[in-house]
Write a structure and sequence with these properties.
Retinol dehydrogenase 11; four-stranded parallel β-sheet; 246 residues; three-stranded mixed β-sheet; alpha/beta; oxidoreductase; signal; NAD(P)-bd_dom_sf
């Protein structure tokens, strides 16, 4: 009986010691690039929290001018000040962007083009998951409207892994599961590594269009590699948004 009680008392301490090591083991992908970014311009969507915030912080630390493209401008301004203080980089700017409204997207793009001549790094980080059924300002179902049509087509597709972020905020069940398995869930900083790897690692151009996970090219299904299906998706997406097909 005494041994059992002692084990129960020691269990929290053992978990406290073990958790960082468990997370480190699961977060196998790390961006090791030492490249600096003075004079470079970056845009990170959804940068006021989680993976986006950590990504923006790292880009600012390396000297880039970073635009935090956020729906909640007030929260974005607070994060921008935090990053400025932490990195010493004052070129961290906030601009309004609501991916659930194509008018907001076009206004953001127009404003950015008026401010900048070049965009060197684009991180389409913002997204939603398990929202209650709703539609965007343009009448699209929220998930496809924000995650696909709002973000557009990116050069690289990345999977950050299972990360402690606000993505699950709409689901009480997922919050409970995240809490239950919190020992095995990446921190936002760990979750940002693959995005940073694809943005900063030189020589990845030959791998354009691939899917990455844990800073490595990852396997995707045959359907995901189907060029005919991809072309059809592109054409349908352009038609829904009313933009010319190339």
């Amino acid at each position: 009986m005494i041994e059992v009680l002692l084990l129960l008392l020691l269990l929290p301490l053992l978990l406290y010691i073990a958790v960082p090591q468990i997370r480190k083991m699961l977060a196998s992908g790390v961006c090791t690039s030492a490249i600096q970014l003075p004079g470079k311009v970056a845009v990170v969507t959804g940068a006021n929290t989680g993976i986006g915030k950590e990504t923006a912080k790292e880009l600012a630390k390396r000297g880039a001018r970073v635009y935090l493209a956020c729906r909640d401008v007030q929260k974005g301004e607070s994060v921008a000040r935090e990053i400025q203080i932490m990195t010493g980089n004052q070129q961290v700017l906030v601009r309004k962007l609501d991916l659930a409204d194509t008018k907001s997207i076009r206004a953001f793009a127009k404003g950015f083009l008026a401010e900048e001549k070049h965009l060197h790094i684009l991180i389409n980080n913002a997204g939603v998951m398990m929202c209650p059924y709703s539609k965007t300002a343009d009448g699209f179902e929220m998930h496809i409207g924000v995650n696909h049509l709002g973000s557009g087509v990116t050069t690289y597709s990345v999977h950050p892994g299972t990360v402690d972020s606000e993505l699950i905020r709409h689901s009480s069940l997922m919050k409970w599961i995240w809490w239950l398995f919190s020992f095995f869930i990446k921190t936002p900083q760990q979750g940002a590594q693959t995005s940073l790897y694809c943005a900063l690692t030189e020589g990845l151009e030959v791998l354009s269009g691939n899917h990455f996970s844990d800073c490595h090219v990852a396997w995707v299904s045959a359907q995901a590699r189907n060029e005919t299906v991809a072309r059809r998706l592109w054409d349908v997406s352009c038609d829904l948004l009313g933009i010319p097909m190339d």
